[in-house]
Predict the 3D structure of the following.
Amino acid sequence: MARIVMKFGGTSMAGIERIRSVAARVKREWQAGNQVAVVVSAMAGETDRLVGFCREASSLYDPREYDVVVSAGEQVTSGLLAIALQAIGVPARSWLGWQLPVHTSDAHASARIEGIDTQALDASLAQGEVAVIPGFQGVADSGRVTTLGRGGSDTSAVAVAAAMKADRCDIYTDVDGVYTTDPRIVPRARKLKRVTYEEMLELASVGAKVLQTRSVGLAMKEGVRVQVLSSFVDGPAADTLPGTMIVGEEEIEDVERQLITGIAHDKNEAKITLVEVPDRPGAVAAIFGPLAEANINVDVIVQNVAHATGSTDVTFTVPGAELTRALDVLQKAQVSIGYNKLVHDSRVSKISIVGVGMRSHAGVAATMFKTLGERGINILAIATSEIKVSVLIHEDETELAVRLLHTAYGLDAEEAAA
Ligand code: ADP
Ligand code: ASP
Ligand code: MG
């Protein structure tokens, strides 16, 4: 007997037919004698619809009420899956975030899970019941409902797996694993059998939305064995690992190692340039201090060559959804920062290459710049970390850039992915 968590994303839960097929898959694991907790997302598109209602009701909505609204999608699917399981003879019940409970911080709309009580869950599983848990939601100490940020059901699943000391956490989605890049953009992307926590963390944080970044960080910290696999193919059983396993670096064999493991893109960033900022100590702090106070995350930063006038241009990116707020903060701080002009552009895209192989090989970034340069793709800004290089380019060139780099680093599969 194993203890397993099965997580099903939005496309896997989109409609009663799909939910019946999920129920049948859950039944197979349960019939094999496993203790099973299932974490579900809202139906595809539902959370967007609910977010839209909040915005329509008021552009300055109360985040506590936003959480009440947007958490509703998962409440519906968890109840429906419990009904579908019961209908095929599987004892099942739903456990809403406040019922388990899933304790979170009070940062509404992006709360962090602080702990999950497993007493009731353990008792239910021990009786042979399947527990169906809505992802994405929890409860703060205040007793109010919270949500974990978009894509948060992955994090719910990993947190449940850690709390119940599960043997495996299987993330079922609409692709059959983690690929070298988004297979919807590059049909020649290759499926990875294994990827390290560290690389997956970087890939997720730079735009590979197959797993939410926080879920990978949590899995790494808690040592949860995560597998990404498809809910759409009736392939081999999940315990034969047909998908992609997220593993520690020591589990990757040398022959599997590539210089670059994956490429990701992110169109949701906006570029801001402050023209003619005084070139003196403290000038940069005067820009990023107020942005940090407003809780706006700044990503790629470039400080350009100083002008003869003793001033310099500073370029950086912020999440596209935060652009309006960032501009407001910067305009209010114009006098204290002392810049001359503010320019912004949201038609940019960030392309990143990720791989632990970068640590031991020189020239990896140079190949990226050369490949893009030869095709006339202009690089607007660059950022690097130990295992990642990101460049900012014009949004229209995203797909072309990803394809070119995929080929340049030898990642193309022999045959196009199905
Ligand atoms: P779910 O609703 O199941 O949580 P998501 O839409 O959040 O699914 O994530 C799955 C999607 O992630 C895929 O359909 C794919 O387009 C996208 N994706 C982006 N990068 C990758 C990658 N490197 N490997 C696999 N899928 C990726
Ligand atoms: N339904 C939520 C979202 O769309 C959470 C999730 O699906 O992971 O963001
Ligand atoms: Mg997702």
